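Known limitations

Structure tokens in this collection are predictions and should be treated as such. Users comparing against experimental data should check residue numbering before alignment. To illustrate the layout, the record for Myotubularin is reproduced below. The input appears on top and the generated tokens appear beneath it.
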Amino acid sequence: MASPISVYNSNAMDTHISSASRESLKMELLADVSLLPGEERITDKDIIYICPFSGAVKGKVLITNYRLYFKSSDTDVMVTLDVPLGAISRVEKMGGASSRGENSYGLDITCKDMRNLRFALKQEGHSRRDIFELLFRHAFPVSHGLPLFAYVSQEKYGDNGWNIYKPIEEFRRQGLPNNKWRITFINKNYELCDTYPTVLAVPFKSKEEDLRRVATFRSRGRIPVLSWIHRENQAVIIRCSQPLVGMSGKRNKDDERYLELIREANNTTKLTIYDARPNVNAVANKATGGGYEGDEYQNAELIFLDIQNIHVMRESLKKLKDIVYPNVEESHWLSSLESTHWLEHVKLVLSGAIQVADKVSSGNSVVVHCSDGWDRTAQLTALAMLMLDSHYRTLRGFQVLIEKEWISFGHKFASRIGHGDKNHADQDRSPIFVQFIDCVWQMTKQFPTAFEFNERLLLMILDHLYSCRFGTFLYNCESARDQHDLRSKTVSLWSLVNGKMDIYLNPFYTPESGRVLYPVASMRHLELWVTYYIRWNPRIRQQQQSPVEQRYKELLALRDEYLKKLEELQLSDSSPSSRLTNSPTPNTSTPSQQYAHLQTPF
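Generated tokens:
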């Protein structure tokens, strides 16, 4: 298998500019920076960018309350950097007053999005101290008592993205409530569980008091609740956290009875409990009061999915970054990639989701949990739902899926990403959501016609996971978002997306409502997502829109044009003057109805 890398001649990347325009270029250097509404300039400075691909590049850096922007003044190499401050993980001083090497005195910036930046400054006055302090203050506003940019932004959009997900409407779409499942508002004030949403679906036969008793036996009070129900066979996906069994092997009759109610709802012979953790980790969790369901849970089977914890995933992505940035490890590419274990982890997550989807598709209800039910659990439930339900494979449906399974159910975005927080070594940081989006990308590669959205949407979601421009991914749970008036004071990412949907649409999309997708989760079929992980390397040939995709879009536009003309002709045919000369039996079907059966083959 060949390395997924194509190398450009670096000279071809250089843009040469005539000496006549040299002065005007310096004058205009930062004049063309288009600031967002609410974005303010903080400082600008002459600086040298130590580009890992082109060497030292002179230019000017602009720092605002939202971004770091650099533009080169060199005429040999044109370099532009546009980095949201939210993407910065760490800022360090490089070199000291006694540093003598060329460009050895400046700033080192580590980013969350797979790149690092290095700038050199002149050793005079307090040139570095001033820019360091300003950058440090505005890159980590939470650590300095400043608001995140999402609260300062004045952007306005026609579409209100906060309305994309309404829990009651989504449950209705699934056919709930019914005679087996009911909607409860027991958590309306976040008293049952402060990291759960306010609207929950639970077994019809369960009483509110039962839910309170079960909450005492589940980690963080995250009781088993319904995520998705199969319309035909009524099998369900239930999510929760681990039971608090502990070293003494505690039991809770209410919890056991509650899981039995879940099983009885569609007469599943055996309720399958998928514990996302490796067996050894689940056993170790007993020492801290956690654990897993034992033999006392009758009519249930327990399966461990061997997905590693947040710390393993964090180290794995770090290793991946080491082999792709700044330079791609060419000589031993495959062995280097394998040593990161990143694709192996992606495989295990996908494999677990396939098992969940397959079990539900065959009519058996499942319970999914990890330790606290907000990391691996969200990956598994969301991916299984994506495989089972074609609605979530539409552009708007995918937004609902993220809002529902990740945001409303309390994936700890603030802790995992560290929005505006200077503590880069925080052990709570982990790329769990990035890994989920990677799994989605793997599915879009294997099923190119099954998703209404394209890769651009996935890249844009990950960029704004860090940017802090929108409120969508801020905070750890709904209760914290309510406390900070998130919906009234910030803009949703989906407002931007749904305002220009065309650029996120997949031209190959073919709706198939009943189709269950089973991706192949083997190492031979998984790929490294080059357009995300290695996109900062200018020598990597970016996977531009394929000629086939471009041609397909042109054909679709042509078809729409012909249909429009046909409609106009039919309208003119049915006008009063033409009816005098035409046949008395008009054709009432529209062109789109006449041609509904036509599909451009691919």
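For this record: The chain has two domains: 33-146, 161-547. The chain has 22 helices and 14 strands. Please report discrepancies through the issue tracker.
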